[in-house]
Amino acid sequence: MFDVEKIRNDFPMIRNNPDLIYFDSAATSFKPQPVIDEVIRFYETRTCNIHRGDYDISFAVSKEYDDTRETVRRFLNAQRKEEIVFSNGATSSLNIVAINFAKKFLKKGDVILTSLIEHASDILPWFVAAKEVGCEIRYTPLDEKGMIDLIGYEECFKDNRVKVVALPYVSNVLGYIYPLKELTRIAHKYNAIISVDGAQGVPHLKVDVKDLDVDFLSFSSHKMLGPGGVGILYGKYELLDQLDPVFYGGGSNARFYNDGSIILKETPEKFEAGTPCIEGVLGLNRAVEYLEKVGMDNVASYGKELTEYFISKLEKLDNVEIYNSASEAGIVTFNLKGIFSQDASGYFNKQGIAVRSGNHCAKLLFNIIGVTETIRASFYIYNTKEEIDRFVDVIKDTTIEKCVDSIL
Ligand SMILES: Cc1ncc(COP(=O)(O)O)c(C=O)c1O
C-alpha cells in the first residue's frame, strides 16, 4: 500500500524544512534515510578505494560496488550486469554513446534523428558528433502538444539514411511519456539504433529494457533518490562492447606498453577509468532498493495522480496558461498570464515554494510551445495533494504587483 506520510518520514529534508514545499524534483530529488546512511557508513567506517587495495575493507567495498551493478540490472531487467556502466551523470552517459557511436559507426551523410523536445545533454553531444563526422541532424515531427507523430516519425526513415535515433523517455518540460517500444520497433525496422535519454523516465516509470528493446539508456542517480555524481549507462552488450571509452586511465586498462598500445579491460570496466564516485554508487544501491520497495507501479501511478490533480486545479484558474495538460510523469509547465516566469517563481520562493523557471535546458522547445520561459513544477513520491492545494492558493493570489514587491 502506498502511504505518502510513511514515505515522508524517511526524508530528512522534509523533516528539517517544515515550511518548504519542494516542487523541483525533476532537477534533483530528496534522498531517503537509507541512502544517506549508506553514504555516511562509507565515510565513517569503510573509506577506501575499490579494485586496488589488498585489504578487507577494500574487498568488501569493491564487492558492494559490483553488487550495485546487479541491483541496477535487476531494476531495468537487463540481460546481464555487464550491460551497466557507471558514469558521473546522465550527461556523461549520453556523451559516451554519442561521441563514440558517431566515431565508430557513422559516416558522412548519415542522419541522426532527434527532436525539438530534447534536453541540452541529449542533443548537444549529437550536434558535436554530427559536425565531426558530417552527419545531418533531422527532427522528428511533433504535434501541436509536443507528442511524437508516429506516422511522421516513420516517414523520417524512408530515405534509409537514419542510423541513430536520440529521444527522451519523458520530456523534462512536458512530462509526456513517449511510446518507446513503438519508437524502437520502427527504428530497428530501418536498421537504426536508439539511444534514450532516461533522465526523467527512469525515476518515474517501471522500465524493462528487454521489453522496450532500446539499445542505450542513460540516466542519473540523483534524480531517483540516489546520491549525486553517479550516472548510469545501459547498453545492449554487443553494441556497448564495440564502443571505445571516452576516458582512459587507471582501473580501465589491463596492460599498456612503451609503444603506446593499450589493452583495455572488459566491458563495462573499460568505460570506468579513474576512481569512481564509490559512495554514490553504494548509495544508488539503497535508492534502487527503496524504489523497488515502494514499487515502481505505485511510483508511476502516484506521480500521475499528483500531476493530474494539479492540472485539474490549474485549469480552473483564469490567470494560468498550461503548456502540457496531458502530462503524466510528475511535471507541469505553465505561466501566469502577463507575469515573467522568473518573477513568479521568485514570489513563490517567498511563499516557501520551490519551483524552477526558465527554458529548462530545452532551448528548442519554444518552436512547439511558443514561449521560451515557463514555470515548471515537478513532483515525486514524497509530495502531497495538500502541498499542491497550498500552491494553488498562492497561484490564485499572485499578481504582478506582489511579484515586483517580493523582488524589491
Ligand atoms: C531530460 C534530461 N536529460 C538529461 C539531463 C542531464 O542530467 P544530469 O544533469 O544529471 O547529467 C537532465 C537533467 O535535468 C534531464 O532532465
Give structural notes:
With 408 residues, the chain is an alpha/beta fold. It folds into two domains: 4-28 and 295-407, Aspartate Aminotransferase, domain 1, CATH 3.90.1150.10; 36-293, Type I PLP-dependent aspartate aminotransferase-like (Major domain) (Aspartate Aminotransferase, domain 2, 3-Layer(aba) Sandwich), CATH 3.40.640. 42% of the residues lie in helices and 15% in strands. The protein has 16 helices and 15 strands. It has helices spanning 4-9, 12-16, 33-45, 56-76, 90-105, 120-133, 150-155, 180-189, 209-212, 237-240, 278-294, 296-314, 341-350, 366-369, 385-397, 400-407, and strands at residues 21-22, 84-87, 111-114, 136-139, 162-168, 193-197, 216-220, 231-235, 253-256, 262-264, 320-322, 331-336, 353-354, 356-358, 374-378. The strands form four sheets. Strands 2-8-7-6-5-3-4 form a seven-stranded mixed β-sheet, sandwiched between helices. Helix 6 links the parallel strand 3 and strand 4 (136-139). Helix 12 packs parallel to helix 15 (385-397). It starts with a helix and ends with a helix. The mean pLDDT is 95.
Within CATH, the superfamily of the largest domain carries the name: Type I PLP-dependent aspartate aminotransferase-like (Major domain)
End-to-end distance: 47 Å
- Compute the average pLDDT: 95
How many separate structural domains? 2
